């Protein structure tokens, strides 16, 4: 299968079971959302897929290949990218420098010693395209730490798009983004290449229903149900547990 | 950018010329400054750029010094060949130790870097038939540079030779600092998590930086062996590592010219203070460092900006 295939994935932190026997598919072109209450284990699940965490049990296949033994950086090189729920950027570097780094690495230029980092035309064209896409033009030469939180979230998203991944996991991309700028996030997701597999972890239901063609509900480390947005919206258990609660 | 790097180079060349003519009787001391600049530059690559916390940069300096000294005595006295041998020795030690060290961070890393230098000193001490032990390695007689310039006892050749090597290292690191690799080191420093998330092995990148820094420290050590014609156990000393770190912090990290400036200021103050008051010069240095750390956390290179900000009454200056 093209894309991700997860079987029997479990993760324990000591006695705490955070992922339990998860079966999950994310084929090429998928647009899935992962929802669930705080502490359900959504970020942990994403970290297991990208290799930040090692599972206690289970397998993860990507394009048919078992990637369970690969390190995070190797999985990224294969095309599995993730944004961080807690913004993780290069704070002292400018927006352009932040974006330049992943592009240089992807193009295999990251270890070059005798060229200027900003001298490659195709890299710079990609940097500028991302800057424009996220309307960061006026801030492009400022250190990222000078940016407002919402703008940093945009850079966070732009950084992972710069990797041109095949699988993209977005961990609460819109959290903290002012509603006036959420459209930039939604636009960016809607404009992603059709064959890219996308998993969005989000509490913002507007965003989830705009983007997802399929929604997975995670509760206490287990998949409660998976279905189309209509099915999830009308599912009694989900309504009771989730939509009826504080996130409705 | 281009203009600035040319002007920095111009200022440094001018300073080298001025020092040469103003202090003709202090050439040995001035030469020593160039050697230290190279060592501190190596530290700036490792610590300032890549964020690798080390208090053992002297390990690679010592390895380079002994390797170049032994090579000159037993194999070939050519100075440039000696520098290459020193660089290889420094890089090799950094590579071997770095395979373990670069997997650690923080206090563990600092302790291990200190330990490597201590082990180097102990090995040099024990192998006294080869290294001269506590008496030091003597009898290094480098041949003429390029077959033209002999090392004179006043130290004119040594001065310009050290100046040229320091300029070369500075230029090399300036280029590397602006390269994709240099940018990636800043990335590793700023956020290792994000570096992994863009597909970079942080361990590998840190190791490369450490080996490069080791090579450059090895060059500094080799240079000192050739110019003083002696290698002592002091080349591995903790004091040397620590002083190099103070010079770097004094000047400002991650900018290269900060390393040069910090070295010049530290060594000059040290030289003058120690001459005037051999017992209390450490207080002067201590006071200087405290002032800089508290008033100018980005080092002396930030002084002009900070003064400008201060005169504008901007109390929230990001120095
Ligand atoms: N490294 C860790 N060690 C121990 N417990 C952890 C660790 N990481 C997460 N947990 C715990 O695992 C559970 C799930 O955390 P996780 O961050 O995956 O939840 P989440 O669904 O992403 O929540 P949120 O919506 O708040 O982001 C929480 O109870 C959390 O405290
Ligand atoms: Mg989370």
From TrEMBL, chain A:
One of its GO terms (molecular function) is ATP binding. Residues 4-245 form the ABC transporter domain. GO terms for cellular component: plasma membrane. The keyword Transport applies. SMART domains: AAA (SM00382). Coiled coil: none annotated. It comes from the Bacteria. Keywords: ATP-binding, Nucleotide-binding, Transport. SUPFAM superfamilies: P-loop containing nucleoside triphosphate hydrolases. It holds the Pfam family ABC_tran. InterPro entries: AAA+_ATPase, ABC_AA/LPS_Transport, ABC_transporter-like_ATP-bd, ABC_transporter-like_CS, BCA_ABC_TP_C, P-loop_NTPase. PANTHER family: ABC TRANSPORTER ATP-BINDING PROTEIN, CONSERVED COMPONENT OF ABC TRANSPORTER FOR NATURAL AMINO ACIDS-RELATED. This is ABC transporter ATP-binding protein. It comes from Donghicola mangrovi.
Automatic annotation (TrEMBL), chain B:
The chain crosses the membrane at residues 7-27, 33-52, 59-77, 83-102, 109-127, 158-176, 207-225, 281-303. It comes from the Bacteria. GO terms for cellular component: plasma membrane. Keywords: Cell membrane, Membrane, Transmembrane, Transmembrane helix. One of its GO terms (molecular function) is branched-chain amino acid transmembrane transporter activity. The keyword Metal-binding does not apply. PANTHER family: ABC TRANSPORTER ATP-BINDING PROTEIN, HIGH-AFFINITY BRANCHED-CHAIN AMINO ACID TRANSPORT SYSTEM PERMEASE. This is Branched-chain amino acid ABC transporter permease. It comes from Donghicola mangrovi.
């Amino acid at each position: 299968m093209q894309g991700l295939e997860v079987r029997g994935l479990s993760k324990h932190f000591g006695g705490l079971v955070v992922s339990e026997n998860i079966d999950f598919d994310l084929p090429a072109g998928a647009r899935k959302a992962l929802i669930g209450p705080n502490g359900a284990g959504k970020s942990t699940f994403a970290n297991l897929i990208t290799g930040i965490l090692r599972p206690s049990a289970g397998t993860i296949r990507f394009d048919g290949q078992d990637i369970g033994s690969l390190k995070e950086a190797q999985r990224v090189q294969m095309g599995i990218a993730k944004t961080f729920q807690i913004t993780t950027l290069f704070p002292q570097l400018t927006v352009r420098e932040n974006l330049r780094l992943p592009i240089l690495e992807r193009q295999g230029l990251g270890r070059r010693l005798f060229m200027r980092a900003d001298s490659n035309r195709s890299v710079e064209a990609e940097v500028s395209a991302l800057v424009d896409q996220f309307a960061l033009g006026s801030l492009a030469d400022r250190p990222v730490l000078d940016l407002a939180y919402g703008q940093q979230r945009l850079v966070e998203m732009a950084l992972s798009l710069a990797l041109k991944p095949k699988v993209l996991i977005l961990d609460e991309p819109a959290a903290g983004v002012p509603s006036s700028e959420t459209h930039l996030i939604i636009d960016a997701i809607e404009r992603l290449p059709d064959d890219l597999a996308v998993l969005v972890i989000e509490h913002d239901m507007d965003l989830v229903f705009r983007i997802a063609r399929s929604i997975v509900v995670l509760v206490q480390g287990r998949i409660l149900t998976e279905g189309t947005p209509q099915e999830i919206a009308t599912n009694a258990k989900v309504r009771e547990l989730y939509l009826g609660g504080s996130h409705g | 950018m281009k203009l600035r790097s040319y002007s920095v180079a111009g200022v440094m060349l001018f300073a080298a010329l001025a020092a040469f003519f103003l202090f003709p009787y202090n050439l040995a001391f001035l030469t020593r400054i160039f050697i230290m600049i190279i060592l501190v530059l190596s530290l700036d690559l490792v610590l300032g750029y890549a964020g690798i916390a080390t208090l053992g940069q002297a390990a690679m300096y010592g390895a380079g010094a002994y390797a170049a000294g032994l090579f000159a005595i037993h194999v070939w006295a050519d100075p440039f060949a000696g520098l290459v041998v020193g660089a290889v020795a420094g890089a090799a030690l950094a590579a071997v130790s770095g395979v373990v060290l670069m997997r650690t961070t923080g206090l563990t890393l600092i302790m291990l870097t200190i330990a490597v230098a201590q082990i180097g000193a102990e090995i040099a001490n024990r192998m006294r038939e080869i290294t001269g032990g506590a008496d030091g390695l003597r009898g290094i007689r480098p041949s003429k540079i390029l077959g033209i310039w002999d090392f004179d006892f006043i130290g004119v050749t040594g001065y310009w030779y050290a100046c040229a090597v320091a300029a070369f290292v500075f230029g090399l690191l300036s280029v590397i600092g602006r390269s994709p690799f240099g940018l990636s080191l800043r990335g590793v420093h700023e956020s290792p998590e994000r570096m992994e998330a863009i597909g970079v092995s942080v361990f590998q990148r840190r190791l490369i930086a450490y080996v490069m820094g080791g090579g450059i420290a090895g060059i500094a050590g080799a240079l000192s062996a050739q110019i003083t014609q002696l290698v002592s156990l002091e080349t591995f000393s903790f004091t040397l590592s620590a002083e190099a770190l103070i010079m770097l912090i004094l000047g400002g990290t991650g900018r290269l010219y900060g390393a040069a400036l910090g070295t010049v200021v530290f060594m000059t103050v040290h030289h003058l203070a120690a001459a005037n008051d051999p017992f209390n010069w450490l207080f002067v240095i201590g006071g200087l460092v405290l002032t800089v750390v508290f008033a100018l956390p980005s080092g002396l290179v930030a002084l002009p900006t900070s003064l400008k900000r201060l005169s504008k009454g901007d109390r929230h200056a990001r120095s």
